[in-house]
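User:
Care to share a sequence and structure tokens?

Assistant:
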Amino acid sequence: MIAILLVSHGTYATAMLDTARMILGPQEQAVAVGLTADESPDQLRAELVRAMESFQGTELLVLTDITSGTPFNTVVALSGQYPFRHLTGVNLPLLIETLICRQFVPMEELIKSLLEKAPDTFVDVDGKFGESRDGGEDWEEDGF
């Protein structure tokens, strides 16, 4: 099963995961982390590191809320240190689809399916950056 890490501003990630659990039932290997107004980006980074380390040995898909926001940028900064895939632009229907399908399909098939279902919603961060995970210049050049 693919592990899911939701990352957002405020309580959005937690609320989405709680709502998905209400609809689908308990969800193993799914964690939500939000950057609150009283937290620094360094505190968010520490929370993300703890969560990512708890999923070591498991395929991890990170879903963020807004392209180029602090949660997004913090996840991108960790991409060179931890193995995971990253999609941004998550919403509740896509989260539910992810939670259902992650048990039955491989990571790349899941990502392809999600991108096909919501091409204007989800952005494949890894595909945008390509193989290079050490810089954001390409992101800026593409107008994002």
